[in-house]
Every structure is written in structure tokens, then in C-alpha cells.
Design a protein that fits this description.
This protein is of the alpha/beta class. It folds into four domains: 131 residues, 3-Layer(aba) Sandwich (Rossmann fold), CATH 3.40.50.720; 84 residues, 2-Layer Sandwich (Alpha-Beta Plaits); 142 residues, Rossmann fold; 83 residues, Regulator of K+ conductance, C-terminal domain (Alpha-Beta Plaits). Helix content is 30%, strand content 26%. It contains 15 helices and 24 strands. A six-stranded parallel β-sheet has the order 3-2-1-4-5-8, with helices on both faces. The protein has a six-stranded parallel β-sheet with strand order 16-15-14-17-18-19, sandwiched between helices. It has a five-stranded antiparallel β-sheet with strand order 9-10-13-11-12. Helix 1 packs across helix 14 and helix 6 packs across helix 9.
Length: 485
């Protein structure tokens, strides 16, 4: 694919790196001269200094032959106008815009109204195929973790009863266990898919075999049914406890959306970005506290959420923490605008007795630091956005993409297309790239971990784990008419 990316910030450069690794032809446009030069020196792609809303700049970047345009500058309006400009001259290509304004994103939701009339299935405002709302995406990850007691990172696979849980081995039956003996401690159907192990200052990602022995401190990813996941956490030495008293540090947009999700508030209008939060069911015995330093923000939060306790305080004030007995919280979610503050606050409150902690960070590098400090769930917002965009870009039947192993391992969800090379072949006969494991197949209402004799069929939803660099090849296997499997 030929892809033009407008905006060479963290998201734009991280996205470009992933696409270049997949052998795609990438061009980057960046308005800031210093950032453009820095990016050009470290990226193996065309980097152009200029404004994305200039047709001359877009054409210099190769928009005329591009398959997709991705706009991820810091301005919603710039992203949307750039997509609209490209649509007016070169319609038909895939267009993705990152926006933070709820009204803009809501216009592309099903049932959204424009010019007083509802358009079935939403519409392509300014030719934009997908709006990516960073705060909503991050909030959904946090809410999903809360629904699983924040005992580790959980990836849920839609319309299936299966989940992938990433668990830190802290003792229990998993410590010292050889995977050949795994079934003796957990006989229910499940699959150990990845082991991450500290090696010096770095983490090593291991696709395990029967001889792999789990050690204390390992981070293990296990596929299991939702009903069994908590039992697996217990085997890893993680204590299960209901999260009834939840604190949210920061009345940011993300913090507000998390509160809205916990209260199961519905959006005021059908088709808004908030509709994605409706699936989370409010628990009547939950108590939610928001801590925010800005007085005016607190007033707005108190008016909007009369059910919540809103505290106008500095979360870093040790006296305040003691006075309000924040150590009695079951969970703290740190969602301020500063990732360093989020990490420090989460780690400190855990040391004061808070059972679980979720921290929002900007980059994967900070996520690794936060995990080493004992924070239970870390949400790297930029990586979440990059994965969401990649899933929209890759096509070939792909329905989802997630990263594990410090970003070096991918979880891919495919829908097997008609005429796909893998269709009609048994798993054992498919020549998949090294470092690939098919974890789950959903066929109609049935989901199962496939065996060697299981045969892929058109319409199967296939979930697999693979090393970075294999995504395009796997897309060809499961996409319509992609090549030999």
C-alpha cells in the first residue's frame, strides 16, 4: 500500500514505523521544520515539510497514487480539512482522521444527522471513512480492565466468550510450572500464547513450547474463556477482590468518560461517540471518587455527576491522601494530562494500600517503566491509537489488531474471505511464517482453539498471534485471493 501520513508526532511516527516494517510505501508530511528534519534523519521514508491542507504538498507526497491518507496532527480541523481537500481532488482512497471533538466524531456514527436528515449507516463527512477518537479508545481500555478487577491487561474478542489475559506471575501454582504440566493445574480449555521475561534491562518475548518453565516475574498471556479468566489470575498468585471503591485522579476528558462508563450513562443523542460506553453496566454498590485540582473543572463535574464524590484537591498532597483515606480505595485510575504524574501517583497509592492501579501513559517506553514499578494495568494511549488506525488500514479481512511484548508481538483478528488461500486447508497444512500461532477460530456461534486437523472455511473469524513483520503475509493468507497458504 501507498500511505500518506499528515503529522509526524508520536502517533504519526510510530504508525509510519509499523507500516515501513510491513514494507508499505509511506510518506510523512510535517509542518514544523525542526521536527520534519529530525524525522527525516531517523525514518526510512519520504518526509516533506509543509502544511497538510496544501494540495501541492499532498501531491508532492504522492497523494495521486496513494491508497490511504491518515491525518494525525494536533488539530481536528486540520485533519478534517486535509481529508476533505484530498477527497475533492482524489476521491475513493481510504481516509482516516484523528479527532478529539465529540461533535465531529459523532457525525460519522451510525444514525448521525446532517442537514436535518439521518443518513443510514452514518456518512462520509468530508470523505472521511474513519474518525479515531483517542479519549474514547483509551476509556474503553480502562473500563474493560475495571470489569476484570484490574488484575492485568485483558483483550476481549467481540462476540466470543474468549479473552486474552496478560498476567504477572507473582507466585501461586504457575510459578516454576513447565507448560507440559499446565493441564494438571488448569484442565479447562485454554492456551498459553506468550511469555515475556526480563533479560537485563529489556524484556524478551518468548513464544512458548511444552518445555518452557514459568518463573516468578514472568508476564504470561493466556487465552481462556471469560468465565475461567479469574481462576487463571488466582493461579498466578493474584488475589481476586471486587472493586467497589474506585478513585479517578484527573478530571480530564478521559477521566470524565471513565466516570460516564462506570455510571453506564448513555449519550444524549443516538450515534454519539458515547454509545460505545453503554455496554458497561453500572454496579449499584460502587463508589466513585474523582480528584481534580482545577476548581472550575470540579464544579462542572459535580453538576454533571451528582452521584459521584468530587474532591477539589492536589493528588500529590500527602496530607490530603491521609485525610481522605485514599489508601482504602480498591482501585485508583490515574488519568491526568501528565504521564509522569500518573505513574508516580499510581505507584505511591499502591504503596499506601490501594489494591489495584491503572495508569494512562503516552508512550510504550513509559508503559514499560510503569509495569516495572508494579502498576497492574498500563494503557499507552498512543499505541492504542496506532493499533486502531492499523486495523482500519490493513484491510484483507482484518477486524482487529493489538500489540503485546513491548510492541514486538501482534494479535490479529481476521475474517477469512471467499477464495482466501487458507480456506479449505487444515491448520497443519498451512505454511504460516515462523513465530505465528493460530489461537482461536469463531465459526457461526461456535468458538474453539483449533487443532492440526481443523480446516479453515470462508467466513471463519481467525485470531492469531505473530511476530511483527508478518502482518501483511497473514493478511494475504486470510484475505480474498491473497496467494498461497
Amino acid at each position: 500500500m501507498r500511505i500518506v501520513i499528515v503529522g509526524a508526532g508520536t502517533v504519526g511516527t510510530q504508525l509510519a514505523k509499523q507500516l515501513i516494517q510491513e514494507k508499505h510505501d509511506v510518506s510523512l508530511i510535517e509542518a514544523d521544520g525542526e521536527r520534519a528534519r529530525h524525522t527525516a534523519n531517523r525514518m526510512d521514508c519520504l518526509v516533506i515539510q509543509g502544511e497538510g491542507n496544501s494540495i501541492r504538498t499532498l501531491e508532492e507526497a504522492g497523494i495521486a497514487k496513494a491508497d490511504a491518507l491518515v491525518c494525525v496532527t494536533g488539530s481536528d480541523e486540520m485533519n478534517m480539512i486535509t481529508c476533505g481537500l484530498a477527497e475533492s481532488r482524489y476521491p475513493g482512497m481510504l481516509k482516516i482522521a484523528r479527532v478529539r471533538n465529540d461533535e465531529y466524531a459523532g457525525l460519522n456514527q451510525p444514525g448521525a444527522k446532517r442537514s436535518g436528515a439521518a443518513e443510514p449507516g452514518g456518512g462520509r463527512l468530508l470523505g472521511i471513512d474513519h474518525f479515531i477518537h483517542p479519549d474514547v479508545e483509551a476509556s474503553l481500555w480502562v473500563l474493560n480492565a475495571i470489569e476484570h478487577q484490574a488484575m492485568g491487561n485483558i483483550i476481549s474478542f467481540h462476540d466470543t466468550a474468549w479473552e486474552l489475559g496478560t498476567i504477572d506471575v507473582a507466585g501461586g501454582a504457575l510459578e516454576g510450572l513447565s507448560l507440559m504440566s499446565y493441564r494438571t493445574v488448569f484442565p479447562a480449555e485454554s492456551l498459553v500464547t506468550l511469555v515475556e521475561r526480563k533479560s537485563g534491562d529489556d524484556w524478551e518475548s518468548i513464544l512458548p513450547t511444552g518445555s518452557t518453565v514459568l518463573l516468578r516475574g514472568d508476564r504470561v498471556s493466556i487465552l481462556a474463556q471469560e468465565a475461567d479468566m479469574n481462576r487463571i489470575f488466582l493461579l498466578a498468585g493474584q488475589a481476586e477482590k471486587p472493586l467497589r471503591k474506585i478513585g479517578i485522579a484527573g478530571g480530564s476528558r478521559v477521566g470524565t468518560l471513565i466516570a460516564e462508563g462506570l455510571l453506564a450513562r448513555e449519550g444524549k443523542r443516538r450515534g454519539t461517540v458515547f454509545s460505545a460506553l453503554r455496554k458497561f453496566i453500572a454496579r449499584q454498590n460502587r463508589r466513585v471518587v474523582i480528584i481534580e485540582e482545577d476548581y472550575h473543572v470540579c464544579r462542572e463535574l459535580a453538576d454533571r455527576f451528582p452521584e459521584l464524590l468530587v474532591l477539589n484537591e492536589d493528588i500529590t498532597d500527602e496530607n490530603f491522601i491521609a485525610e481522605e483515606q485514599l489508601g482504602d480505595l480498591d482501585l485508583i485510575v490515574t488519568a491526568t494530562a501528565r504521564q509522569d504524574l500518573n505513574i508516580i501517583t499510581a505507584a505511591y497509592l499502591k504503596s499506601r494500600g490501594v489494591l489495584r492501579a491503572i495508569a494512562l501513559v503516552t508512550s510504550p517506553g513509559y508503559a514499560a517503566i510503569a509495569r516495572q514499578l508494579g502498576i497492574d494495568v498500563v494503557i499507552p494511549m498512543k499505541s492504542v491509537i496506532v493499533d486502531t488506525i492499523l486495523a482500519r488500514l490493513m484491510g484483507g479481512g482484518i477486524r482487529g489488531l493489538h500489540r503485546l511484548g513491548e510492541g514486538q508481538i501482534g494479535i490479529l483478528e481476521f475474517e477469512t474471505g471467499p477464495g482466501a488461500p487458507a480456506g479449505g486447508k487444515a491448520l497443519k497444512d498451512c505454511r504460516f511464517p515462523e513465530g505465528t500461532l493460530v489461537m482461536l477460530v469463531q465459526r457461526g456461534d461456535r468458538s474453539f482453539i483449533p487443532k492440526g486437523d481443523d480446516v479453515f472455511s470462508p467466513g471463519d473469524r481467525v485470531i492469531l498471534i505473530t511476530k511483527n513483520g508478518n502482518e501483511a503475509e497473514m493478511s494475504r493468507f486470510f484475505g480474498a485471493g491473497g496467494g498461497e497458504a
